[in-house]
Amino acid sequence: MNDAYAELRYWELIYHLVKREQMQIVHMNEDGPIIWLEDNRGKKTQLLRFHLKSYDWSRELRTDIERAYKASDRVRKKLNLRKANVVNVVTAPYTPVDSYESDVSRALPFTAGGQRQFRTVVLPLKELESVLFPLATEWKLQ
User: How many angstroms separate the CA atoms of 92 and 40, rounded?
Assistant: First the structure.
């Protein structure tokens, strides 16, 4: 799988969420493909962070998760959505070669009705449909 195909799938996903699902782009990073979306279609507003990145090692993924967690607090404050849940979605053409599964959440709906939850879901492009389906169900996508 080449990088151009991965980037195409990433932008197709973002396009679908914005155009068809009416989510709003609240921030786009200039130094890489990181996009924050606000999903305010349901009762509770949710923030979604999409990042297109391959990680060689799980420690790189952990560092990015920590960075995303800190950024989520800043974005919540800036948008006045202090209680919003955040889903950090990493679209990865290639996943880390070592074990990373303990660092991320499975693509399952939030079970507790809590607020200010943060989780990371990795979407490996070779498994995109199988991992994206539970998220599409949770987000009530068309």
Answer: 26
